[in-house]
Amino acid sequence: MMRRRTTLLTSCTALALALGATACGGGPVSAGGGDKALSGQTVTVAGVWSGSEQKNFQKVLDAFTAKTGAKTQFVSTGDNVSTVVGSKIEGGNAPDVVMVPQVGVLDQFAEKGWLKPLSPTARQTISADYAPVWKKYGSVDGTLYGLYFKAAHKSTVWYGPDALAQAGVKPPKTYDEMLKAGHTVSDSGLAAFAVAGQDGWTLTDWFENIYLSQAGPQKYDALAAHKLKWTDPSVVKALTTLGKLFKDKQLIAGGRQEALNTDFPSSVEKVFGPKPEAGMVYEGDFVAGVAHDQFGRTIGKDADFFPFPAVDGGTAPVVSGGDAAVVLKDGKNATAGMKLLEYLASPEAAAVWAKAGGFLSPNKKLDPASYGDDVSRAIAKSLVGAGDSVRFDMSDQAPAAFGGTKGAGEWKLLQDFLRDPSDPKGTAAQLESAAAKAYQG
């Protein structure tokens, strides 16, 4: 994502970035206090990040090294964090810290007895500086194991300002207005939406936003925990609402079959590439990074977003995801690993990546000026401002067999629904059958 250089950082934030050491208005944070107390030690960190994300996280790790003297080593796991970390533990080569991208995986790690509870310092910081919902998603059976360092805002709809301007429409406030605006965009010569149906996870995100707004947070929580069956009328209603979009040939670029052959980067290209085919694409804040890095779009000028709109009179949804830092018991340097986690909990650590771009923090104490552009600040404000109404990505809370496996479970069944959206009730029954097996397992 493009970042304008921020010239008006507060002196405190600028000093913290320059020194990588002292918290604003007080003494040093507990990660070593800048006295190189961890010199000679190495902290190994495992996570899914690669490319620009890994490069930017390395800047955070380098700031930790400058602060404490501890060296760091990052190991990219690929998408299957659970398998890779499990094999490293079995081989006696466990990392000290793991950045866990799914609530379900954090639960799994805790149940296996792999995790150290967070230190009193980390717990105190999280209680003070984060909305309680982030503490909830980092805890298992009342014990706090995970710090959500990097978050995603999955309730953003991205659009080409020229496409909407030429169609004479403004960003909508309701779901029905969004579909109506989509028809107007379509009438002007572009399809309304690019849909990345080849990647099943994008379809789960569509469903979750509709369901959270339409059914409300209590039912969302119950469905996420499988305390509510997928055959519940609220699920059928949400699928019916999503099916209205899927059925409408005017609204989806290339129709349903082309959507099933479109992956996430290609969906962004259909809106922000050299030959736009659609006016809008729904996905998280990370759309901006692809639009800028791959297609040279200036965020806020020729690529912008509006919040996912409210459905059927409900509250506009704020669905999030995130990467939680956890400390493994079997790591060779778990004590220094916990010091890294305490540092990651600080606004100074978040500011390093916020300045680099492609990052959102749920930390309420992070100065918004740390973000490099107005769009990022607006997204961060929406995420932090939602407080406890934020809900974590439902599929990420589910067992991987249901909510996180290509060609299986929810991903496949929603792809099947995109292919043929004529039977929401039948799809709900199939989802319940798959969920029951996965949650029982």
Automatic annotation (TrEMBL):
SUPFAM superfamilies in UniProt: Periplasmic binding protein-like II
Assigned keywords, A-Z: Signal, Transport
Region feature Disordered, mapped onto this chain: 422-441
Record flagged with keyword Magnesium: no
InterPro entries linked to this entry: Bact_solute-bd_prot1, SBP
UniProt xrefs under PROSITE patterns: PROKAR_LIPOPROTEIN (PS51257)
Top-rank lineage group of the source organism: Bacteria
Pfam families, alphabetized: SBP_bac_1
Residues spanning the signal sequence: 1-23
Family of this protein: Belongs to the bacterial solute-binding protein 1 family.
Name assigned to this protein: Sugar ABC transporter substrate-binding protein
Organism listed in the record: Streptomyces alanosinicus
